[in-house]
Amino acid sequence: MFFYDSTMLILLPAIIISALAQLKIKFSFSKYSKVNSANGYTGAQVARMLLDEGGLFDIPIEIVGGKLTDHYDPSKRVMRLSAEVYNGTSVASIGVAAHETGHALQDKEHYAPLKIRNAIVPAVNFSSNASWLLFLVGIILSVQPLIYVGIILFSAVVVFQLITLPVEFNASSRALTILESKSILYGDELKGAKSVLSAAAMTYLSAALMAISQLIRLILLSRDR
Hints:
It is built from seven helices and three strands. It has about 220 residues and is mainly α. A hairpin with a 4-residue loop joins strand 2 and strand 3.
């Protein structure tokens, strides 16, 4: 099977970086979730303050299950924070809550990369599944056009991952700037929040690298057929 061939080596760096990124975010969040902020604000309180400061009074903040499942939903205009972040007073909780608020502010300001990412989500959801199916069928039946279509569809996944990078980096930058300017976090607390958000950024970088590596592998496999 083509799953187990020399082209798998192309994925090795991305796999290693992805594993390291996951370890880093878990370690960083765990470390700074034990460091409480001097102000004693919860993640939910910080998110509410920043949303209101940005004129986003109508955006509710809800609790969502799971760990590190925090996200802003632009389609429903709602922010969802995990219980640990929602109720937590730690530097990690505040950093994550501020980051998600950054996405809400991007949405309000019609931040171009966010708008593009949101617009292509349906297409990417389809192409991420259909690409592998068409590629596999093309390989098995030796139908080159199907292989090419599969590669083209998977390219949409790569584009999505690349567009995600400025969206996430900008949200983190906004979060750190606001936390400092509003004196919500101080000194080492701000450094802790930056460490958590930097670790999270590494997971997005590793996802983009994995997608690019997969695309290169598919192209190489198609040339062998």
